[in-house]
Amino acid sequence: MSDLAAKIIADIDTGYDREPKDVARDYIGASMAGTDCIAELQLSLRGFPSVTPDPRLKRIFFAGHRIEDWVVYDLKKRADLRVWEKDDTTGRQHRREWLGGHIVCHADGLVNFEDGSDDLAILEIKSMNDARFKQFEKHGIKSANRKYYRQATMMMAMFAISRTLFVAYNKNDSQLHAEIIPFDEEEWGEMFIKIQSAIDGHSERVASTPNDWRCKSCFKREACWQPPVLPPECRFCIHSKPSEDGTWLCSKGKDASEVCNEYTQFQVSPKGG
Q1: Is this prediction's pTM over 0.85?
Q2: Do 252 and 262 touch, CB atoms closer than 8 A?
Q3: pLDDT < 50 regions, the chain
Q4: Of the candidates 81, 116, 167, 218, which lies 20 to 30 Å from 247 by C-alpha distance?
């Protein structure tokens, strides 16, 4: 690569780095609710900072969004399915909330299969490399990626919809794979127990060391293993718990809208703790 070409690539990466950092989500979302780590759920619920993706990962996310648009277009224009990728009332992604917005899920769309039924299905689209795609083709979503399966399960529970159209897109050769996933009540029951555990204040790590493979891909790994000192807010305090109205309650009986002299920053529990 010539010096000029290298500079162009470097300038692109610098441009990504100059972009404002995304504000950390302060809720448990469906995309991460399938984790086995209660600490990850707890840190997400409280809105602890996430690791900032590097330019390469940002491009992967950006490409994934564009692929979703292409797949929706194909479903509508070529498969002749009725797809609502946006909520007509908001003009945004379809969204459902529980516990005043402490638990949230977003769907890529809603689908009617034109099969004589008025029942809708959740639409979930994932793009992936060839190796992972072949696992989905061979084993199906539940075995190939339990986290994706749990994401679909949570969305079905929150939308009260009994099936999901899952579409996988192979980024190597543009092949498509699709599955109709029925609602799995047993799986949801296991997920709900973990989510409720986080709501109740539990925060046990699934790993014993930050070098664990599950930690390396977790966006809460720094907040978990090297917690930053944060500006005092009640949601970051060990004495607070989420309220049904979307705010936080103080276990000390104080007004959780103002930080008091008993503020202690929350820290997760070690494995087995």
Answers
A1: yes
A2: yes
A3: none
A4: 218
